[in-house]
Structures are given as structure tokens and as C-alpha cells.
TrEMBL record:
Superkingdom of the organism of origin: Bacteria
Name of the protein this chain belongs to: DUF3159 domain-containing protein
Species whose genome carries this gene: Streptomyces achmelvichensis
Length: 245
């Protein structure tokens, strides 16, 4: 390799790294809903705790939180956007409303979400120990690699394992803060702490996931492989028909 070739090779590698990071950022944005998804996650709980702080009326606060969740879904439907993040928010809020109404305790509005967070944390950790890290199952289809990383891309599997550990431990740390407060703090204090902890742990987990995947080998596009195999099969059949003719 000549001295003229080296800068070109370096520049090509840098461009590939930038492309890989851009693809990873786009995939994470799609998988986790981006800024809009975060707003849809935070807004119902924020509205609930704000109204309850002002008038201490559980029913009004719960109905307002559910109404804004439904409005967010309606906006997405009208814009023909994906509704998975908004729908998950509606279900979470609906369960919270049911719990709070049944017990008459406003703090129970947050209990289903807390239990979900705990279950998700355990799922990240258990699946990673089992060799099938959950973040890989979530992001594999987004990267068009499906489960190819399990057997064909060990470097990527390792990155998914690191990311899943990060998600699991961060969510466990969040639960370690919230569950004691659920018992000890009053409803208003607890609600504001919970809202404050909605986004920062999520952003930290997403950042670490991006960091691990940006340094990992690129995904294997199994969809492109299938398309190439189908094209090759068609060409083989066409060649066979020409020979028979």
C-alpha cells in the first residue's frame, strides 16, 4: 500500500463508521419512538400529577390523563402515523386509572407502570443470561437482520447483550428508587419524582445502546439475502428452460 492509498482507506473507514452510526441512530429512533414517543410517555402522567396536586380530585385527574392518551392516539391515526407507542401509553394509563379507581388511592395510578418496568428489567436480564438478549429481539427486525446475530454475527450478539444488561440494570435502579417511595412518600411527591424519572433513565439506556451498537459489526441484511436468493433461483430456472428449449 502506498502513502497515497492510506488516506483514502482511512477516509473510507471513517465514512463507513459515520454511516453505521447514522443507521443505528435511525433504527433506535424508529424502535423507541423518538421525541414524540417520549412526549406521549410523559404527558398523561404529568397531567395526572398536575391536576391532582391542584385539586386532589382523583377522578378528574384520572379522566384527564386517559383523555389526553386517547387524543394522542387520535392524532396519530389522523396523520396515519404508527400508533404502537401511543397505544401502549393508552393501555398503561387505562390500567392505572382502573387500579386507582378500584382502591381509591391516587398512587395506584402509577402502580401498573411500575410493575411493568420491573418485569421489563427482569426480562432484559433473564433473556441476556439465556443467550437471547431482549434488545436484539426488539431491534433485529428494525435492522433487517432478524435473528441472524445469534449464530452468524457474534460481535453484534455481544453488543446486544451489553445493551440488554444496561437496560435491565438501569430499570432495576429506577425501581429501587420508586418502590420505596410508593410506600413512604405522599401522592404528590411520588408523582413528581416518577415523572422526573421518566426520561433520563430512558435516554441513558438508549445512549448506551447506540454506543455499543455503533462499535459492533454491521447487521446482516437477511431480507436482502432472501431477495438475492430468489433472484438467483429465477435465473437458474430461466437458464434451465433455455437449455431444455
Amino acid at each position: 500500500m502506498t502513502s497515497v492509498d492510506k488516506p483514502t482507506t482511512t477516509n473510507d473507514q471513517q465514512q463507513q463508521d459515520r454511516d453505521a452510526k447514522a443507521v443505528t441512530e435511525a433504527a433506535l429512533f424508529e424502535a423507541f419512538g423518538g421525541v414524540r414517543g417520549m412526549v406521549e410517555t410523559v404527558l398523561p402522567g404529568l397531567l395526572f400529577v398536575t391536576i391532582f396536586t391542584i385539586n386532589k380530585d382523583l377522578h378528574i385527574a384520572a379522566i384527564a390523563a386517559l383523555a389526553v392518551s386517547l387524543a394522542l392516539v387520535a392524532v396519530r391515526l389522523l396523520r396515519k402515523d404508527t400508533v404502537k407507542h401511543a397505544f401502549s401509553g393508552v393501555f398503561g394509563v387505562a390500567f392505572g386509572v382502573v387500579f386507582a379507581m378500584m382502591t381509591g388511592n391516587a398512587k395506584d395510578f402509577y402502580l401498573p407502570g411500575m410493575l411493568y418496568t420491573l418485569g421489563l428489567a427482569l426480562a432484559y436480564i433473564i433473556t441476556t443470561i439465556a443467550g437471547v438478549p431482549l434488545i436484539g429481539l426488539i431491534l433485529g427486525p428494525v435492522f433487517k437482520e432478524n435473528l441472524s446475530w445469534r449464530t452468524r454475527n457474534p460481535g453484534r450478539k455481544k453488543a446486544y447483550a451489553k445493551a440488554s444488561w444496561a437496560w435491565g440494570l438501569i430499570l432495576l435502579a429506577k425501581c429501587a428508587i420508586l418502590f420505596p417511595l410508593y410506600w413512604w412518600a405522599d401522592t404528590t411527591q411520588f408523582g413528581w419524582v416518577l415523572v422526573a424519572l421518566k426520561i433520563p433513565p430512558f435516554l441513558l439506556a438508549v445512549y448506551l445502546t447506540w454506543l455499543f451498537l455503533a462499535k459492533a459489526p454491521p447487521p446482516i441484511d437477511v431480507f436482502a439475502e432472501m431477495e438475492a436468493e430468489e433472484l438467483a433461483e429465477k435465473e437458474r430456472k430461466a437458464a434451465a428452460q433455455q437449455r431444455e428449449a
